[in-house]
């Protein structure tokens, strides 16, 4: 949630420009300002989720890639086997185990945005992230509630909370950012000691279309679902294979 923390630190009732504190605009200008704030919030969510996905994928590969020493009877280099995570990704397939991690990650971000009433979930979010969760949540609520008040003044009404409305609009963009993050890799050919992350054009071609949207229908926001249970069994039961939009609304049990 690094980008969200950075965004939260820079948000507030006053805007600092060039080291000088500027009061927030009023009237129509305030409405425009709240829209800009909401856009910055969206970008912070996308960037945070994308960065988290990148590092989760790196860890997943290391934990699930068999080496020659682990498979003496069928030696193969990492990346050469059909069950190797990277090999699957290069074919445009996200391994089921990692897809499940992506579902839970997006669910965490929705909980952070929309809010949860379960204290156990709140504690888990803090434990899995950092001690700044409450600060981020407060900043999110301030921005979205302000935008909601401006919308009401202009005659716009909604039967949902500002946070729910915002998520329904932007959850899809956050998911796309997570898929987009999988097209990047560590560049080990650079100078020693200097980390570099670059986009792999082959991965981009395998995962994204020419509009940078998930290439395969089964990974699109409204279509993607978990087709493997926690014990590894495939199922077509709609109850045990919820779509992503359904999954993120299901309370998580820790």
TrEMBL record:
SUPFAM superfamilies on file: Duffy binding domain-like
Transmembrane segments: none
Residue span(s) of domain Duffy-antigen binding: 36-201
Location of the region described as Disordered in the Swiss-Prot/TrEMBL record: 1-35, 65-92, 147-166
Gene3D superfamilies to which the protein is assigned, alphabetical: Duffy-antigen binding domain (1.20.1310.20)
GO molecular function, a single term: host cell surface receptor binding
Polar residues bias (residue ranges): 21-35, 66-84
Entry GO CC: membrane
Name the record gives this protein: Erythrocyte membrane protein 1
Organism name: Plasmodium falciparum
Taxonomic placement: Eukaryota, Sar, Alveolata, Apicomplexa, Aconoidasida
Gene (UniProt): var
């Amino acid at each position: 949630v690094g980008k969200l923390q950075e965004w939260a630190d820079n948000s507030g009732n006053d805007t600092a420009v060039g080291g000088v504190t500027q009061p927030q605009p009023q009237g129509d200008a305030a409405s425009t300002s709240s829209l800009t704030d909401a856009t910055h919030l969206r970008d912070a969510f996308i960037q945070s989720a994308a960065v988290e996905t990148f590092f989760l994928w790196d860890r997943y590969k290391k934990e699930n890639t068999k080496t020659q020493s682990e498979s003496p009877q069928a030696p193969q280099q990492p990346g050469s086997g059909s069950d190797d995570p990277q090999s699957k990704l290069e074919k445009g397939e996200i391994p089921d185990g990692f897809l499940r991690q992506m579902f839970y990650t997006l669910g965490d971000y929705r909980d952070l945005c929309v809010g949860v009433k379960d204290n156990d979930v709140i504690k888990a979010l803090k434990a899995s992230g950092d001690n700044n969760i409450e600060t981020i949540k407060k900043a999110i609520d301030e921005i979205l509630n302000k935008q909601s008040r401006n919308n009401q003044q202009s005659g716009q009404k909604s039967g949902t909370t500002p946070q729910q409305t915002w998520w329904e609009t932007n959850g899809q963009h956050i998911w796309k950012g997570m898929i987009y993050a999988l097209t990047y890799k560590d560049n080990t050919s650079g100078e020693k000691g200097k980390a570099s992350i670059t986009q792999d054009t082959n991965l981009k071609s395998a995962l994204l279309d020419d509009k940078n949207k998930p290439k395969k229908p089964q990974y699109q926001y409204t279509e993607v679902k978990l087709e493997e249970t926690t014990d590894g069994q495939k199922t077509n039961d709609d109850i045990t294979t919820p779509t992503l939009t359904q999954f993120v609304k299901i309370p998580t049990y820790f």
